């Protein structure tokens, strides 16, 4: 039952820190980590440190960081905008072409960078049938 209380405290700490105090989610997660570590009692520092070290060694942590870095790289180099432009030029003349271009670009970007921060922008005028 202690684990359920720790999970509830973790979620509450994140929500309060982020939504009520209007701080960023990274800080909220760190506060949630500290609140959860406190449930270890007198071993909180040791348990918290071991959890942090083991978490940083995790393959999932590396993959998440790699996705974020690739996402930033693709965004800053302008590759996303060029990809949307190319797809819009290929699909824009068809009915619903802009939507298809945005969907394909979002899928390609998500497959590589796992972040859809700029997957659509209106580049071709929409055409109504008729």
Q: Give the N-terminus to C-terminus distance in angstroms.
A: 64 Å
Instruction: Calculate Rg over CA atoms.
Output: 22 Å
Mean of the pLDDT scores?
Answer: 83
Taken from the alpha-carbon principal axes, the silhouette is elongated
Count of helical stretches: 6
The number of distinct structural domains comes to: 2
Low-confidence parts lasting 5 or more residues at pLDDT below 50? 115-121
Structural class: mainly alpha
Largest sheet: none
What amount of the residues lies in strands?
Answer: under 5%
SSE run:
HHHHHH
Portion in helices:
over 70%
Give the strand tally: 0
What would you note in describing this structure?
With 130 residues, this protein is mostly helical. The protein folds into two domains: 2-57, no CATH class; 59-130, no CATH class. It has six helices and no strands. The protein has helices at 2-20, 25-37, 44-56, 59-76, 79-91, 97-113. The longest helix has 19 residues, at 2-20. The chain starts with a helix and ends in a 17-residue tail after the last helix. The chain crosses the membrane at residues 28-48, 60-79, 99-116. This is Tripartite ATP-independent transporter, DctM component. It comes from Kibdelosporangium aridum.
Distinctive features:
130 residues, mainly alpha, 6 helices, elongated, Tripartite ATP-independent transporter, DctM component, transmembrane, DctM, transmembrane helix
Summary?
With 130 residues, this protein is mainly alpha-helical.
């Amino acid at each position: 039952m202690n684990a359920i209380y720790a999970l509830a405290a973790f979620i509450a700490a994140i929500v309060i820190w982020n939504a009520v105090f209007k701080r960023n989610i990274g800080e909220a997660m760190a506060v949630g980590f500290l609140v959860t570590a406190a449930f270890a009692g007198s071993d909180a520092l040791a348990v918290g440190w071991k959890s942090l070290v083991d978490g940083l060694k995790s393959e999932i942590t590396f993959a998440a960081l790699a996705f974020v870095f690739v996402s930033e790289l693709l965004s800053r180099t302008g590759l996303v905008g060029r990809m949307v432009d190319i797809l819009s030029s290929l699909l824009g003349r068809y009915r619903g072409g802009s939507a298809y271009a945005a969907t394909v670009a979002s899928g390609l970007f998500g497959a590589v960078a796992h972040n859809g921060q700029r997957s659509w922008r209106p580049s071709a005028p929409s055409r109504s049938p008729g």
